[in-house]
């Protein structure tokens, strides 16, 4: 079987809700990343055999196969097909898995895996809310309700359950959130993101352009202190999580160009990394955010590795309890986790986050001269993907 190599990885800087990317149609924003992948490899756009794009809010401007719409807004020719993937927050990490599987099988040689989400223009939960407005029912079917009687499938509830189960105090969550901002600040000021970010014009929600380029993640709180974080209101009375210890609503896009050996020769490209292992599991849909723990355990076992073999980890910061519980259970080194900050500081553009985290992981490994990286993220419904890469 062929190997899967990543030859280019790029992302936009994150934009706050109603912020510097809010004027971008999501298909056009994603197209900027597709164009950047082509430019960075000097590839013939017609050689791309498929575009697989993650997106969670597939409604409104992100409906009707956002992946194909992004292709039609990009430099890629009409001959390039595209499909959209929804594995909730892991959508573009799953896009990478599908792209890797395609080139490893030999069915294709050159594939783009990408993701996009405009949480300003298509607010979180839009596809679930629309049926109610038309007098229709919930996504929770009678069969689901019978299997899980009285259960509210909520990521907020899951985050609180994890905090309780793993004995994580509010003070620990607050301290972790501050650390995320501190890492993101250091990475930004140190130019760690420069090579991965695709500059795009600032476009505000009212359609105005400032003439500036958006080149830095907008969500970072440079003024954050432990006191300011601790003072944020609890999400649920008696709980431990707040908006300050949860991922930020974010607009953004990211992408990866994935090839096999034939693709490498065709493009004349140098690989950045090799996909070493891929895992996806289903887990408890009630405490749903816990899934990265057993998923990582399974991935390491299948790959014949130990957590200490991994040089850097990217564990999505949907809520602070998720990476903290993961660290605790895996016995992982906190100094290797989300070294450039995570979604608490940088934002979580839902369907775009998988490709975004992988882009940051690849560049961080290169900057530090490290070999193995592991990425995982919790996903709605109790799912989790794990990807282990080897930097080349």
UniProtKB/TrEMBL annotation:
Keywords: Acyltransferase, Transferase. Residues 5-261 form the Thiolase N-terminal domain. PROSITE patterns: THIOLASE_2. It is an enzyme of class 2 (transferase). Residues 270-391 form the Thiolase C-terminal domain. The keyword Zinc does not apply. Pfam families: Thiolase_C, Thiolase_N. One of its GO terms (molecular function) is acetyl-CoA C-acetyltransferase activity. Its EC number is 2.3.1.9. Belongs to the thiolase-like superfamily. Thiolase family. This is Acetyl-CoA C-acetyltransferase. It comes from Variovorax ginsengisoli.
């Amino acid at each position: 079987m062929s190997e899967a190599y990543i030859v280019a990885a790029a992302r936009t800087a994150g934009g706050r809700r109603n912020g510097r990317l809010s004027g971008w149609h999501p298909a056009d924003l994603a197209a900027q990343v597709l164009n950047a992948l082509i430019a960075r490899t000097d590839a013939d756009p017609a050689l791309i055999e498929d575009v697989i794009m993650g997106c969670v809010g597939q409604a409104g401007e992100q409906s009707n196969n956002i992946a194909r719409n992004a292709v039609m807004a990009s430099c890629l020719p009409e001959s390039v097909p595209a499909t959209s993937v929804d594995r909730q927050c892991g959508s573009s990490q799953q896009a990478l898995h599908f792209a890797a599987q395609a080139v490893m099988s030999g069915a294709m040689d050159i594939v783009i895996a990408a993701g996009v989400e405009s949480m300003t223009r298509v607010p979180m939960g839009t596809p679930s809310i629309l049926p109610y407005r038309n007098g229709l029912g919930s996504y929770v079917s009678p069969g689901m309700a019978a299997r899980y009687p009285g259960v509210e499938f909520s990521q907020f509830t899951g985050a609180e359950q994890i905090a309780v189960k793993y004995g994580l105090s509010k003070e620990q969550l607050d301290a972790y959130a501050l650390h995320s901002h501190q890492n993101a600040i250091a990475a930004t000021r140190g130019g760690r993101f420069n090579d991965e970010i695709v500059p795009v014009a600032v476009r505000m929600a009212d359609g105005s352009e400032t003439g500036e380029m958006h080149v830095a993640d907008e969500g970072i709180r440079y003024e954050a202190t432990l006191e300011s974080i601790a003072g944020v209101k609890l999400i649920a009375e008696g709980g431990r999580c707040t908006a300050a210890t949860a991922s930020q609503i974010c607009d953004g896009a990211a992408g990866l160009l994935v090839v096999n050996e034939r693709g490498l020769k065709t493009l004349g490209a140098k690989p950045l990394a090799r996909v070493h292992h891929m895992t996806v599991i289903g887990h408890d849909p009630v405490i749903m955010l816990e899934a990265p723990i057993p998923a990582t355990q399974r991935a390491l076992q299948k790959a014949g590795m130990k957590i200490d073999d991994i040089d850097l980890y990217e564990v999505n910061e949907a809520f602070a309890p998720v990476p903290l519980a993961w660290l605790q259970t895996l016995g992982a080194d906190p100094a290797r986790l989300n070294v450039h900050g995570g979604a608490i500081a940088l934002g979580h553009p839902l369907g775009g986050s998988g490709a975004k985290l992988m882009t940051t992981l690849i560049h961080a490994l290169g900057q530090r001269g490290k070999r193995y990286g592991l990425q995982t993220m919790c996903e709605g419904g109790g799912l989790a993907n794990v990807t282990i890469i080897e930097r080349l």
